Amino acid sequence: MKAAIIGTTGYGGAELMRVLANHPEFSIHSVHTTRDEVPVWNEYPHLYSIVENKLEKVDSEAIAANCDVVFFATPSGVSSKLISEFADKQIKIVDLSGDMRLRNLDDYQTWYKKQPAPKEVVNKFVYGLSEWNKENIATADWLSNPGCYPTATLLGLAPVIKEDIVKPDSIIIDAKSGISGAGRTPSRGTMLAEMNENLKIYKVNEHQHIPEIEQQLTDWNASIGPVTFSTHLLPVNRGIMATIYASLQKESTIEQVHTLFMDAYKDKPFVRVRPIGNFPSIKEVSGSNYCDIGLQLDERTGRLTIIATIDNLMKGAAGQAVQNANIMFGIDECTGLNFVPMYP
Amino acid sequence: MKAAIIGTTGYGGAELMRVLANHPEFSIHSVHTTRDEVPVWNEYPHLYSIVENKLEKVDSEAIAANCDVVFFATPSGVSSKLISEFADKQIKIVDLSGDMRLRNLDDYQTWYKKQPAPKEVVNKFVYGLSEWNKENIATADWLSNPGCYPTATLLGLAPVIKEDIVKPDSIIIDAKSGISGAGRTPSRGTMLAEMNENLKIYKVNEHQHIPEIEQQLTDWNASIGPVTFSTHLLPVNRGIMATIYASLQKESTIEQVHTLFMDAYKDKPFVRVRPIGNFPSIKEVSGSNYCDIGLQLDERTGRLTIIATIDNLMKGAAGQAVQNANIMFGIDECTGLNFVPMYP
Amino acid sequence: MKAAIIGTTGYGGAELMRVLANHPEFSIHSVHTTRDEVPVWNEYPHLYSIVENKLEKVDSEAIAANCDVVFFATPSGVSSKLISEFADKQIKIVDLSGDMRLRNLDDYQTWYKKQPAPKEVVNKFVYGLSEWNKENIATADWLSNPGCYPTATLLGLAPVIKEDIVKPDSIIIDAKSGISGAGRTPSRGTMLAEMNENLKIYKVNEHQHIPEIEQQLTDWNASIGPVTFSTHLLPVNRGIMATIYASLQKESTIEQVHTLFMDAYKDKPFVRVRPIGNFPSIKEVSGSNYCDIGLQLDERTGRLTIIATIDNLMKGAAGQAVQNANIMFGIDECTGLNFVPMYP
Amino acid sequence: MKAAIIGTTGYGGAELMRVLANHPEFSIHSVHTTRDEVPVWNEYPHLYSIVENKLEKVDSEAIAANCDVVFFATPSGVSSKLISEFADKQIKIVDLSGDMRLRNLDDYQTWYKKQPAPKEVVNKFVYGLSEWNKENIATADWLSNPGCYPTATLLGLAPVIKEDIVKPDSIIIDAKSGISGAGRTPSRGTMLAEMNENLKIYKVNEHQHIPEIEQQLTDWNASIGPVTFSTHLLPVNRGIMATIYASLQKESTIEQVHTLFMDAYKDKPFVRVRPIGNFPSIKEVSGSNYCDIGLQLDERTGRLTIIATIDNLMKGAAGQAVQNANIMFGIDECTGLNFVPMYP
């Protein structure tokens, strides 16, 4: 199958090229951006001699004529405008941006501070949390790929929310992310001299991934109240850790909770639930499509601590996008995603 | 005044030398460790031509005869054994280790997994959270310097705990620390190749600073229940950020909470309460004795987020130790501590 | 084919597992170390659920009976002792250590300060600089894999040394390496707090890779004199850059020199000669088996600057080892090595 | 004395504030930039409550009326335009930019690719390599502060060039710098995601500091030919290491060379010549005004290796600027510069 990639100004587009360069079923047919005629390796020298394409302008006719799938690796606000061009064409769409994730358009406007796409367009998109929505993804033509923070958070919370074992108003997510999530457009805040040896908290209670998390949690369990969600910027390239706190509804043992997670993820190859007492670090998933989960229960406070780690560019973006494309095209979801974490 | 420093295997001892090298009232008389006759600069080449001392074995007689104050910058378990040698001598003691902080000796045994010092020795130590215990510090001969995590946490929580405005069982502290807090003894976990590009959670619900935090919180407000406290290791040298969550007892505005903090810290030169909407990063206090505090209130959940940042080797160790020594000797607490944060 | 790996205390062993885990022809049969019965993932949690082996003691009989090839990823001094056990057995050997690289045993003793292996053993090893010794590698049973610094240096120098276009006594190599090359045994010098925000020069004129470099250079061109070779430790996990200076024998243009390199490497898929004016950085080869080369000529001084970058754990260790194993077993040298550099 | 600082878009201006904030003789009177009325701490939150000034537009009349000295911490091309406004006024000038360093105006145009200042203006500036031009600095009104690379390089080379003990055409300088030298204007190349875990070579043979180095070397020793000078960007905030190679004119011992350096720098408090066999790292001078020098001699090649390290923002910019201002105003050159390196 042939794939087109739109957008290379963030790192998600580059990561898609890293994944698809060796994919046995998908090949990179074309790479699109507003800049034209520049070889891809000029923008990304690490792809020298690997991706031979030149960047091209977006031409929806040509893309749809030549490709089976198009990946939008664009900033928010772009796919909501471009998608209509593809509406009547024979091509599957995977949108990595946040534009099509929120069913409530007012929420989009409130949190993204941008004009939402039309209701009927948004409604056609299936939310691609691969592990928990596989059946719908399998029949989807248009797919909205989850955000990096929501992926880690939701995979960490799914078993306890679905089984209703935590107090609905007790959820606090303290999330930390590597800086590649901030994209490739230069800004003072992402300069090495500013972020190196640093840790910053940002968008306190205001991150646009909050409604995405709450939408899925309440889909699973209508009783769940608003969550507290904090985001910190780490001086590393890749990786997200979500440290999640929630109070148990009733007394349980760590063994019971651990069994719940083991059962929930036993047939889901990209989620690795660690043994009791073992906790994942972000480097242990770096470059791979894994989400690693660790668990701890504090008897003194009755609080559960869930630690979920992913590579924000892989399971949090390009990796999950390809996993979803695999499912959409009826091939094994692991195809082309056998990346061993790169350590050190 | 003349100072002796015991212990250089952690970075606290080296930081004490950095601070005292230019202190107008204290001078470094001697530096002690188990190694003998080695010039200090062999261990710490950055002190070449600055600290001319050779390392000496600990000789309590000589130290007491020559010095006005001795700083213990030793791992836990050392000062509890050594302190008795100084019991009958004319010398003030500042202990940077955790040995003398917990009044409940069972707690020490439980959390430190070591034999505590005798009750009557521990009782003679005054807890040196400079901003909130200044009167007792002023008359102390023996001082127990707070831990790095407790310093950030307690300075962040003091105003709301003392004023009883948060629910007593709602406190969650998600703390992140630079690696210098782990000391200078080589271990796999602190190697650059293991921690670089990494973020690790450790000692989940088991950190020995938990009882220290709870002891002070309940001293301030007996209603406070056990706290949830998580610690993460950052790939940076210095810095602690405590992201603290607590639910308000009753509705307040961010302006009211901010005013509470401004009032609480208005005469405390090393605490900088940031304006509403402005949040401190760890680098903005690096190398200085400041504790910077930011505040946010989430109306959706009724939770307060308090962000407190310090340099773990300064306000979290050597800086606060010298601040306390200043107070103990009746000089201005800021003396010799006018370090501007080093940025970048 | 089945592979055994001996040695996991350095990162070379772990990288071999990362490469072989997905190799279409080789599978990991067993992993050996002095520790026994511990699952591999205990030592390397990133391999959880990927490498299911337990560590085993070295049993040469069993290894030879079960495997087609054994990789030694051991510190210097180990394979020189262990190799004799394999001498009479039907198994190919790839030695990643420095023990079998120097034909002159006195040089080994001088630079490694250890007892060399017997002459007849060393002589049986073929030096595995894949790009320049392919024919001999193809028929080798015992292979000595080049050091990381020599790989970058020799690939950078080969074209000009073979064509005799630089002055034989003018070669200066200023090399910089990520810290994974220093292995996984904890030491003060490799702690994050010591190396982060740092750059260290070490083993000035005394690095054990000097005789390895000179042996190959004089094999290519007997006129080459001793080289100046400096090594610096970078605060990064992976990557080597060799900045090489040499004076031209006679006037040339940068175009002529560039053409020489393009011709030399045109059929060598892992060497990417960059266009004139474009220079490789270490991150642009990270995680891959590429060696990237950049060139500059200074008309003011008549000196050529050659920049060669590799990932020290891949082309400098495990990657080249697998490339050599591919050649030794008669399969395409690129098999299982299609790693796209991980960026960022 | 009162000081004005012009320019805060690079980190040199911020570092001047860090140094002057505690200087016993100079105080910060005003800080100037093209932005107006913004508190300094908005731009540099680490200076919150320390530097209370608001940024002001440049008004040469007011500056000269109120201040004794003005520091230009501006990018190249700015002071060459602004300086004329101060020509007829009673105020000393310290220019940290490269505009006034090259006596040969053609060189300025060639290497900086900008219009030079008028000859008579440039001629009035004294070159402020504090250790070697102290007498001229003492009587200077207008001072041109050396570049960061030239400072490390020239302090490393001075003894051997002045004594004429190295071959005039043999000098190669392989320099490595932290990223703060690149300024604070966002660009792709200085983003954390691009430079972290990276090492880049840049401006090969084309760095504008080359003519500055050669100008001083030939002033000291007319026989010196063009040098080879390479610059690499490190993933650290601060620090320069110049690894300098030169061939000895005649045989010497390392002891003789070391004695030469010890003698040359015995009364120069900011240069620390390390003992034989001991080499400085960049972190060991971080935050201080020291230049540390290490030496090695290779008998195999007859080449001397000189390692010189500085903090590029201190001895390479603000520190040396204040050292020069001290000398210009007749006070001890060390005044206000007793910064102990911050380690770790």
Automatic annotation (TrEMBL), chains A, B, C, D:
Q: Where in the cell is it found?
A: Cytoplasm
Q: Name one Pfam family in it.
A: Semialdhyde_dhC_1
- Presence of keyword ATP-binding: no
Q: Which GO terms describe its biological process?
A: L-arginine biosynthetic process
Q: In which pathway does it act?
A: Amino-acid biosynthesis; L-arginine biosynthesis; N(2)-acetyl-L-ornithine from L-glutamate: step 3/4
Q: Which positions fall inside the Semialdehyde dehydrogenase NAD-binding domain?
A: 2-140
Q: Which GO molecular function annotations are given, in alphabetical order? A: N-acetyl-gamma-glutamyl-phosphate reductase activity; NAD binding; NADP+ binding
Q: What is its main location?
A: cytoplasm
Q: What chemistry does it catalyse, as a reaction equation?
A: N-acetyl-L-glutamate 5-semialdehyde + phosphate + NADP(+) = N-acetyl-L-glutamyl 5-phosphate + NADPH + H(+)
State the InterPro entries in the record: AGPR (IPR050085), AGPR_AS (IPR023013), AGPR_dimerisation_dom (IPR058924), AGPR_type-1 (IPR000706), NAD(P)-bd_dom_sf (IPR036291), Semialdehyde_DH_NAD-bd (IPR000534)
Instruction: Name the active site residues.
Output: 148
Q: Name one GO cellular component term.
A: cytoplasm
The UniProt entry, under NCBIfam families, shows: argC
Q: Which family does it belong to?
A: Belongs to the NAGSA dehydrogenase family. Type 1 subfamily.
What is the protein's given name? N-acetyl-gamma-glutamyl-phosphate reductase
